[in-house]
Design goal:
By secondary structure, the protein is an all-beta fold. The protein is built from no helices and eleven strands. 0% of the residues lie in helices and 61% in strands. The strands form two sheets. Strands 2, 4, 5, 6, 9, 10 and 11 form a seven-stranded mixed sheet that branches.
Amino acid sequence: QVQLVESGGGLVQPGGSLRLSCVVSGSIFSINAMGWYRQAPGKERELVAGITSGGSTNYADSVKGRFTISRDNAKNSVYLQMNSLTPEDTAVYYCNAEVVHAGTWGARSFRYWGQGTQVTISS
């Protein structure tokens, strides 16, 4: 069983900052790519930022320069530092990780999702 536990969401004023954390636990051999997604009411879930096992990152154009994704492989964790927040950033943010399991037939990977954490930007 693999579990992704998120924290750090909440209410913040425009221009403020938040730092989201996601800890992966369970049967883990290693973790490949990790990422943060978000979904606003009535909209499709979109990729906000992703990071590979080697540390390469990519960002949605709307957050580039404001958000920073990072990971700590020793802690099986991924983080999202969000600065200069605007009301358009309001959404439920989800953590995602491709987890590698060591089994009888070798290494197998599966994607897992966190429960989501609400981020609200409002005056």
